[in-house]
Amino acid sequence: MYSFFLALFGLSYDQWYRILFLIGKNLFLALLIFIVGIWLSGFVSKMVKKLLQKSKTDPGIISFTASFVKISIKILVIITSLTQLGVQMTSFITLLGAAGLAIGMAFSGTLSNFAGGIMILVLKPFKVGDTIKAQNEQGTVMEIQIFNTYLKSAENKTIIVPNGPLANGNIVNYTKQDNRRVDWTFQLKAGISLNEIKLLANEVIKSDERILQKPEIFIGIEEITDGGPKVIIQVWVKPKDVQLVFYAIQEKLYEKFTNGNYLHAS
């Protein structure tokens, strides 16, 4: 056995033992650093999140900062683990520099998303809790992370939107303003008195406390068609009440107009 180790690369048994022991020790330490470091990244991220929440920081900044801290620690852990394995970081960085163009092209979208996340936090086109429509998606903002923004749709689906296209595209924010307008249109029969419609509509609208009195309620003729006038009714509500008010009042108005035989049969 001794002669075998001596013949292999000209190393003795003791030399092979020391080499294997050193490799095993470095491998064990690198694995330990990696496991503890990954756990630590999650722990520190949660601690940062709790501290920022106590200081009443904007929720968007909280989720972004926590995500940034977590990813930064993970990168540091990977570099430290590689160093423990004996990888020379100077050579590694030189190699990355030589491949900089290819890496830059590969990660251009990721860097764009990172920059987009910063733009969103600085310019604040929306915040956590707002309902928005962007990139052909609509939902309530749940989190603004380092690369992506998470929305929850009305169907309780999670929608993940990259920050780069989100920051550079059109955004409709349904909750940024204090009040929102709700509209209904009804096709009436020819010869129907608008005053009668106003009385019935006002009776229904004023029975709902969610509808604001200012700006004032508007009821008017939107269009004159061959079948009769098309009436439009506009009220103002708080953003959180839009959907509930729309369906509740629409049902009541339809019943009133149907019972009075005011609607045009299409």
Explain what the structure shows.
- This protein is of the alpha+beta class.
- The protein has 3 domains: 2-98, Helix Hairpins; 125-173, SH3 type barrels, CATH 2.30.30.60; 180-259, Alpha-Beta Plaits.
- Helix content is 54%, strand content 20%.
- The strands form 2 sheets. It has a 5-stranded antiparallel sheet.
- A hairpin with a 5-residue loop joins strand 3 and strand 4.
- Helix 2 packs antiparallel against helix 3 (59-84) and helix 8 (194-205) crosses helix 9 (242-259).
- The chain is rod-shaped.
- The termini are far apart.
Report the sheet with the most strands, covering strand number, pairing sense and barrel closure.
5 strands, antiparallel
Oligomer class: single chain
Overall number of strands:
9
Uncertain runs: none
The CATH architecture designation of the largest domain is: Orthogonal Bundle
Instruction: List the helices and strands in order.
Output: HHHHHHEEEEHEEHEEEH
Distance between the termini: 99 Å
CATH topology type of the largest domain: Helix Hairpins
Look at the structure and give the CATH class of the largest domain: Mainly Alpha
Task: Describe the strand arrangement of the main beta sheet, using strand numbers.
Answer: 4-3-2-1-5
Helix-strand category: alpha+beta
Q: Count every helix, treating DSSP H or I runs of 4 or more residues as helices.
A: 9
Q: Number of domains in the coordinates?
A: 3
Average pLDDT, to the nearest integer? 83
Q: Helical amount among residues, as a percent range?
A: 40-55%
